[in-house]
Design brief:
Elements: H1 21-36, E1 39-46, H2 50-57, E2 61-67, E3 71-78, H3 81-89, E4 95-99, H4 101-118
């Protein structure tokens, strides 16, 4: 009941060429990080809050530029609009999401939901 009906030698190696495991792992991590950071938001945050925000988002937080009055423009990322908004909602007035509009709208929806539940 074998599924092999015929067999012939091709001269090709039976195994693929040796792979560079470090390089393969870097590629897997890179793909994974791209999937985890599809949605990017521009955020204004106080310089004093930046270290905590950077720690919270890790490699998904990037300083873009310094702003007047002790503020910074940063970009943060997550896998979905909702996921990013949920993470940012806990910051309350400590930051302002400048864009995209979809994240701002999701924050407004979350706020209305909380107000309705706890108002």
């Amino acid at each position: 009941m074998d599924r092999i009906s015929t067999l012939s030698a091709t001269g090709e190696p039976a195994r693929p060429a040796p792979m560079d495991l470090d390089e393969a792992w870097r590629a897997v991590v890179e793909r994974s990080e791209q999937e985890r950071s599809r949605i990017v938001a521009s955020v204004s945050v106080r310089e004093t809050d930046w270290p905590v925000l950077r720690h919270h988002f890790g490699r998904h937080a990037q300083h873009v530029e310094d702003r007047p009055e002790g503020r910074m423009l940063v970009q943060v990322a997550a896998h979905t609009v909702r996921g990013l908004a949920e993470q940012l909602a806990s910051w309350g007035q400590h930051l302002e999401v400048l864009e995209p509009a979809a994240v701002r709208a999701e924050l407004a929806r979350i706020g209305a939901e909380l107000l309705d539940a706890y108002g």
